[in-house]
Every structure is written in structure tokens, then in C-alpha cells.
Write a structure and sequence with these properties.
The protein is mainly α. It is globular and about 35 Å long. α1 (about 5-10) crosses α5 and α3 (about 60-70) packs across α5 (about 90-100). The chain contains five helices and no strands. It has a single domain (about 5-100), classed as Cytochrome c-like domain (Cytochrome Bc1 Complex, Chain D, domain 2, Orthogonal Bundle), CATH 1.10.760.10. Bound molecules: protoporphyrin IX containing FE. Protoporphyrin IX containing FE (HEM) binds near residues 14, 29, 30, 42 and 86.
Length: about 100
């Protein structure tokens, strides 16, 4: 099945304890995620990212986001994101489509 941003919005409910995604939204336990797709890792100047995440090269393209959401601690050992990950590939594709729909990239 192709990625469905509306279904991804449902998956994103697992993220809202720590993340906002509205434009200019506040950082919480995690950084605001508006427009994050395509950006470098740890791009917000007003969020205290881990060195672990900031030291991963590259940008948040689909493959990077898919790997991150599969296992944050394997993608960036030492990350502050204490979230086990999403084991279901369709859920990951849908939530990345949702992230991609929130903000211009
Ligand atoms: C970082 C997505 C769940 C806490 C990030 C980043 C993304 C992301 C894309 C990197 C942002 C950037 O580089 O600017 C998601 C998604 C989630 C989720 C899609 C749900 C499927 C959570 C949860 C928590 C959390 C539940 C809290 C328990 C954090 C923290 C960071 C982070 C603390 C910063 C990591 C670091 O600096 O090492 N998240 N997240 N996230 N997230 Fe999440």
C-alpha cells in the first residue's frame, strides 16, 4: 500500500506526548517537528539535541526517517529520544508522509 498521511496523523498520536508539529509550535520533551522532512538532523537552534543525534550526517530524507523511526537508539546511539520505535513499516511510511505534509520543504 502507498503511504497515507491521514493514517499517519493517527500514528502521530504516539508522538504527541513529546512533539508538537504546528508552525512555530513549542518544543516539549522533543523538538517541534514542523517542516522537519528534508532538514539536517537537529536543525532547531532553540532545542538542546544530543550530540549523538547531531553527529549523524545527512538530512531527514525518507530513508533516514524510516531508519530512525525503526529504532532511534540504533540510528543514533545515545539519543535523548526514549521511544522504542515503530515496528510496522506501513505505520512508518504513513507517519513520514504525515510529517512531510506538515510544512514546506
Ligand atoms: C527527536 C520524530 C516520538 C522525544 C525527534 C526527531 C524526529 C522525531 C524526526 C528529530 C528532529 C530533528 O532533528 O529536529 C518522532 C516521531 C515519533 C516520536 C515521528 C512518534 C512515532 C517521541 C516520543 C518522545 C520523543 C514519544 C518522548 C518520549 C524526542 C527527543 C528528541 C526527538 C527527546 C531529540 C533527540 C536527541 O536530541 O537525541 N523525534 N518522535 N519522540 N524526539 Fe521524537
Amino acid at each position: 500500500a502507498s503511504a497515507d498521511p491521514a493514517k499517519g496523523a493517527e500514528v502521530f498520536k504516539k508522538c504527541t506526548a513529546c512533539h508538537t508539529i504546528n508552525q512555530g509550535g513549542a518544543n516539549g520533551i522533543g523538538p517541534n517537528l514542523y517542516g522537519v522532512v528534508g532538514k539536517p538532523h537537529g536543525h532547531l537552534p532553540n532545542f538542546a539535541y544530543s550530540d549523538a543525534l547531531k553527529s549523524v550526517p545527512g538530512n531527514w530524507d525518507f530513508d533516514a526517517m524510516d531508519a530512525w523511526l525503526t529504532s532511534p537508539r540504533k540510528y543514533a546511539p545515545g539519543t535523548k529520544m526514549t521511544f522504542a520505535g515503530l515496528g510496522n513499516a506501513q505505520d512508518r511510511a504513513n507517519v513520514v508522509a504525515y510529517l512531510n505534509s506538515q510544512g514546506s520543504n
